[in-house]
Structures are given as structure tokens and as C-alpha cells.
Amino acid sequence: MKHRIFITQEDMQRLTDLLASAERMSNRDLEHLWLLRQELEDAEIVASDEIPADVVTMNSRVRIKDMDSGREAIYVLVFPRDADVAQGRISILAPIGTAIIGYRAGDVIVWAVPAGKKRLKVQEVLYQPEAAGHCA
Questions:
Q1: Which of 84, 99, 124, 129 is most open to solvent, judged by the fewest CB atoms within 10 Å of its CB?
Q2: 101 within a domain of the structure (yes/no)
Q3: Which residues contact 57 (CB under 8 A, 6 or more apart)?
Q4: How far from each other are the two terminal CA atoms of the chain, in whole angstroms?
Q5: Does residue 20 surpass a pLDDT of 70?
Q6: Which residue range is the domain that position 11 belongs to?
Q7: Backbone angles phi, psi at 81, to 5 degrees
Q8: CA dihedral sign, ordered 17, 15, 34, 39
């Protein structure tokens, strides 16, 4: 059974625009673009002020655990122009970025990455712009 994810109306609009422009420019990321489009099509769209505080939205800071290795990492989910892996800022178009958008703290996600399947757990949403009152 597919897990229901949540997306704010604002994120949905910005991500739809991003997909439209990215699909015109890039052939190499088409698989990830298609996966992101699938995630968005299955998402429950909610107003920014109604999104639960434990949902990963754009610009959220989250603690993720790799369920196979046990390693944890903290990431900020950003648009491609703001991505900086050295700073833990991962693009929504990166495999892990596409995997975690819309999921909640406690959710375990099974996602295809270049090295195979990953099992990731959203340990905690450390910062969410909507919950902090910082959404655009």
C-alpha cells in the first residue's frame, strides 16, 4: 500500500513549475522528475496553515536515519538552485530529496537510489517553515 504524503498548496505550485522547466531542459534526470511527479499526483494538498508540523515540506530541516546502515544525517530540503551537499542542503530533485518530501516524522520510506533500494526513516522534523510561521 502506498503511503499518503502531504504537500502545501504553495509547494505544489512551485514544484509543478520546477518540473515543467526541468523537463524542458534535462534528459538525464527524467526518471527522478517522473518519480517526483508521481509523488505529487498522489499527495494530499493542504493549506500552509493546516500542514502538520511533523511533515517534511520545502526548506524543512530533517533528521533521517538509513535503516540499513544505522547512520543518521540532517538535511535541509531545497530547490535545486539552493542545493549544497557540503552544507547538508539537498535538492528536491536528488533521490533522497524526492523520497522524503511530504512524509512525516516516524515514517519509513523505501526508495530507489543509484546504489539500489534504501530504507530511510524520518526521525524528526527539526524545522518546518510553515510551523515556524516563515512560509512565503
A1: 84
A2: yes
A3: 7, 8, 11, 51, 77, 101, 102, 128, 129, 130
A4: 33
A5: yes
A6: 6-130
A7: -65, -20
A8: negative
